[in-house]
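Retro notes, item 3 of 5
We never archived the inputs for the guanosine-5'-monophosphate complex last cycle. Fixing that now. Sequence and ligand:
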Amino acid sequence: MNKGSLFIISGPSGTGKDTVLSEVFAAEPELRFSISSITRPMRAGEVEGEKYHFISTEEFEKLLDEDAFLEHNTYLGNYYGTPKQPVLDCIENGEDIFIEVDVNGARQILNKMPQAVSIFILPPSLEVLKSRLSKRGTETPEQLEKRLGEALREIRCADMYDYAIVNDKLEDAVADTLTVIRSERLRASRRTDEIRKLTENL
Ligand code: 5GP
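Structure as it came back at the time:
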């Protein structure tokens, strides 16, 4: 069976990466999403098990000891980690999976799994990024300032990714992301099953 593809997506808070992803998942419902385990407190509107599993620091550290994460990072004082086994299972079962991580997490995954396809979502400008961050209204001014600083550090690393997609008009960013996914699926190296079937009776 053809193995599934692994897509890594990053982009600082405020780039609208979650909105892009939800449209991409609506268009490609068979895509899988890796649910991270995190120790940050739940924000209003977040649902356990949807994007994140909200766990305690003790639970996270126990999982770390058990080597249960593909990657992990500390972001503004909280742990964020990608559970390893679900990702490996998806790929083995021929399913394509998206992992949303920060730059540090992306680097760790790319070191272990260089075949992963990496996408960075950029804001159209710093002004737009600032205004999107403050409109969210979920952070204190001090937290906002820290997130902005973190965003600038991440943007400086965007050139280590395979693709950089600007989220100015949402529909264009979604179309660009779908183009990356569909191109990846057309790689000859991912279609060995089809090629074998066509040639086995020759
Ligand atoms: P937020 O607190 O805004 O949900 O996420 C903060 C940052 O952590 C974002 O850049 C997000 O992409 C990243 N992130 C989310 N899940 C993970 C994860 O499992 N590992 C790592 N390294 N970063 C993550």
